[in-house]
Each structure stands twice: as structure tokens, then as C-alpha cells.
Amino acid sequence: MKNSDVTRGPIQLPGNADLTGREGFLLKVTSNSGAANFALIAAITDDANYICESGNVSGAYSQAAPLTPEQNVRAKLKGTCVPGDRLVLADPSNAGDEGKLRKLPATSGTYTVLAVAEETGVDGQLVLARPSRIGTVIVS
């Protein structure tokens, strides 16, 4: 069988940054000398494909689940949202916002919709959202 060494659901990888307390934040996978590591989001264009379930110190194993529309998630929210709002990455240049989601802003720019809010949310909440790669949205 060709798929005998694959994993379904959450995976554990070392973090290339301190992921302590980052549960509910989106992460990406990067290469550290050829080995897979979890990393914080560095740009709103990053491929944020995982949500942190259990963070740990840099170099130690953290657990994250892949984003899939089959299951909703609780993601850390920047700002507010209402059900149906399209959610995109928050600006990672603001310290502490790396991997948070926010509703699609009215500010001009290109954004990737990663999820849809399923409940009303306030800043800092782990808001219920459904991963949904709607695609790139250009706000002008």
C-alpha cells in the first residue's frame, strides 16, 4: 500500500518558535535543515494550513490539526465578527497577532479567506469557524 505511512488528523512537529499559549492560532509548516517544523505566520500571504492544539517551547513538539471543511475549529480572533463573516489572517507585523484570524477588512488589499465565522466573536476569543478556502479576495 502506498499510503501506509501517512497520518490522518493532528500531527506533532517541533516548533521553530515558542508556541506556548498559541492554541487556536494558525500555523504553517517550514523546513529546518530538511525536517518539518511548525512556524508562526510571517505574512498574510503565508499558507496557514494548521491550527495549534497544544503549543510548546521552541524546538519541542507541538500538536496541530490540518484545516479542513469537514470540521469546525476554534480560532483566536483579532477584532470582532458575526456569523457568516469571511475570516482572513490578521496582520502578523503586530506582535502577538501571528496566526490570529480577523474578518475580511474593508482596507484595500489582497486577502485569502481561510474560514467563515459560525458565531459572534469578540477580540481575543476562540471563535467557532468553519475552514473554507474560498480563495483570494481583492478589496479596492
Quick overview of this protein structure:
The protein has two domains: 11-66, no CATH class; 73-139, no CATH class. The chain is mainly beta. Helices cover 0% and strands 44% of the residues.
Structure commentary:
There is one protein chain. This protein is mainly beta. The chain has 2 domains: 11-66, no CATH class; 73-139, no CATH class. 0% of the residues lie in helices and 44% in strands. The chain contains no helices and 10 strands. The strands form 2 sheets. It has a 5-stranded antiparallel beta sheet, with no helix packed on it. The protein is globular, with a radius of gyration of 15 Å. The mean pLDDT is 96.
* Tally of DSSP β-strands: 10
Gap between N and C termini: 49 Å
Count of all domains:
2
Query: What structural class do helix, strand and pairing data support?
Result: mainly beta
* Largest sheet composition: 5 strands, antiparallel
Approximate strand percentage: 35-45%
The whole-angstrom Rg is: 15 Å
Output mean pLDDT. 96
Shape label: globular
SSE arrangement, N to C: EEEEEEEEEE
Strand order of the largest sheet: 1-5-4-2-3
Instruction: Give the helix level as a range of percent.
Output: under 10%
Q: Which blocks of ≥5 consecutive residues have pLDDT under 50?
A: none
Number of helices: 0
